[in-house]
Design brief:
It contains 11 helices and 13 strands. It is an alpha/beta fold. It has a single domain, classed as TIM Barrel. A hairpin with a 5-residue loop joins β3 and β4. α5 packs across α7 and α9 runs parallel beside α10. The longest helix is centred in the middle third of the chain and has 17 residues. The radius of gyration is 20 Å and the shape is globular.
Length: 356
């Protein structure tokens, strides 16, 4: 009787936790690594693209999240890049630390100083609200752009710059005309300053767009875009179908011969301490998408969303890898595959970047 009760308890516990007796190796083995041939195509006018069959691995996105990651996984193989954010109106969080009103700290220079042989994944905040994009297009923030240009040249490493990230998201309220004018002005200023180590990323929300505009309405042109980016949050909870909007972005990228990066991603429903169900529900579809769609760079956000004061994400949860040892171990199993590029002395050469 006691044995039966114990077995019943263990069975129910395994079902509840989602462990099912699986090891991290078995969890990682659930990922399909096949690439759909239709997503293998030649890229044109793009910088710092990994070789065929490779994907650049990036982690982020705040000083606090990166510190948590390093404290828990500092002995693991380091990612090939790190993320940070800044806003077009002010040169803050770039050359030195800046704690913003969300409660998080940004510091691009820290990423350069502490993580050699990596890239910088830089997000430039620019919205339609308060006429930020309109002012950018009129030259109000030219001084800030030039200051960033000087900083970028000095760091002497590849930078992937997301100009007005999630340009089509309803939360950013960006009118296409204002966005395109601002985007082009920013790129033109960098080029006038002879900045050669920046790849320009056109980053879509990959969900229902602002005012139902077509994604093409925001496109600044092939000469101004090196990469196309997408955000992956709720998308992966639906299995391998990430939605028609996401499909449309990938089709647009192929049409314009641009590589695709997952510029922001996280299982926003949280990573629980004693439940690995998130692996099956989010991580497996996520990695399937990376392999199947031939995603060339991927940025994972290691963050406790409950600690940040950001409007619209009140229901997001703590989704740090450190919350669950088995999920974290499976993550490192999955990203240890030869597809993923990590920090190394040969990384820049693999990306086609010549250090000066």
């Amino acid at each position: 009787m006691k044995l039966s009760s114990t077995l019943l308890f263990l069975g129910l516990f395994g079902l509840f936790t989602g462990l099912h007796g699986q090891s991290s190796e078995q969890m990682a083995a659930a990922i399909s690594t096949e690439t759909d041939a239709q997503f293998i195509y030649e890229y044109q006018g793009s910088k710092f693209v990994p070789p065929t069959g490779k994907t650049l691995l990036i982690m982020g996105q705040t000083k606090e999240g990166i510190t948590d990651y390093q404290n828990n996984f500092g002995d693991e193989k380091q990612p090939g890049g790190w993320s940070a954010y800044w806003g077009i109106p002010e040169f803050k969080g770039v050359a030195s630390a800046f704690k913003n009103n969300t409660g998080s700290t940004q510091n691009h220079q820290m990423l350069v100083d502490e993580f050699p042989n990596t890239v910088v994944h830089s997000a430039m905040w620019m919205v339609g609200i308060l006429d930020i994009a309109k002012k950018t297009g009129l030259g109000t923030y030219d001084r800030v752009i030039k200051e960033y240009a000087r900083w970028a040249k000095n760091v002497n490493r590849p930078i992937y710059l997301r100009i007005g990230y999630e340009f089509d998201g309803p939360h950013n309220e960006l009118e296409p005309r204002d966005y395109i004018r601002a985007y082009r002005r920013i790129v033109d200023l960098f080029r006038a300053e002879n900045v050669e180590n920046i790849a320009f990323v056109w980053h879509s929300y990959a969900a229902k767009p602002y005012k139902n505009y077509s994604i093409a309405d925001w496109y600044p042109g092939d000469d101004y875009v090196d990469w196309v980016g997408v955000s992956i949050f709720d998308h992966a909870y639906g299995g391998d179908d990430f939605g028609s909007e996401c499909d449309a972005v990938l089709a647009f990228a192929k049409e314009h011969a641009k590589p695709v990066m997952i510029a922001e991603s996280n299982p926003i429903q949280g990573i629980d301490m004693d439940n690995t169900k998130v692996w099956e529900e989010w991580f497996v579809p996520y990695f399937n998408f990376i392999h199947k769609k031939n995603i060339k760079a991927v940025s994972f956000i290691n963050e406790d969303w409950t600690s940040l004061s950001i409007a619209g994400i009140e229901h997001w949860k703590d989704a740090r890898l450190s919350n669950n040892k088995l999920v974290a171990k499976a993550w490192f199993e999955a990203t240890a595959q030869k597809r993923f590029l990590h920090a190394s002395k040969k990384l820049y050469k693999q990306l086609g970047y010549k250090k000066k």
